[in-house]
Write a structure and sequence with these properties.
Elements (H helix, E strand, L loop, with lengths): L1 H10 L13 E10 L2 E15 L6 E8 L2 E8 L5 E8 L27
Antiparallel strand pairs: 1-2, 1-5, 2-3, 3-4
Length: 115
């Protein structure tokens, strides 16, 4: 079983990603294929969780679009991610911010960390 994980980790190339955690506002530049054309779309929101470790690591980004909360899960080592920008660091006390789903408006704000 360990041999399979080892081979998988060797086959996936690790990307250099900035240091971010739950509560940080990030912009994910994601490649989108439409037919034979390729464009980059920016998905900006709050990272509500980082999950797993190694090659299978993912992170979830939540944003509010037209009054509706939208969450998207990105694999960290995905070849479709062009780059990740950290816009601000949030001051939160937990690793998974699922409680943000129930909050709207000013209640859903996250304090920013002083750098």
């Amino acid at each position: 079983m360990d041999l399979v994980k080892f081979v998988e980790e060797q086959s996936v190339e690790k990307k250099q990603v900035p240091v971010f955690k739950a509560g940080d506002t990030v912009s994910v530049h994601y490649k989108i294929r439409e037919g034979n054309k390729e464009r980059i779309q920016v998905y900006q929101g709050v990272c509500i969780q980082r999950n797993s470790a190694g090659t299978t690591e993912t992170f979830t980004v939540r944003k509010v679009s037209n009054g509706i909360g939208v969450e998207r899960i990105f694999p960290i080592n995905s070849p479709n991610i062009d780059k990740i920008d950290v816009n601000s660091h949030g001051k939160v006390r937990r690793a998974k911010l699922y409680y943000l789903r129930a909050l709207t408006g000013k209640a859903a704000r996250i304090k920013s960390k002083r750098v």
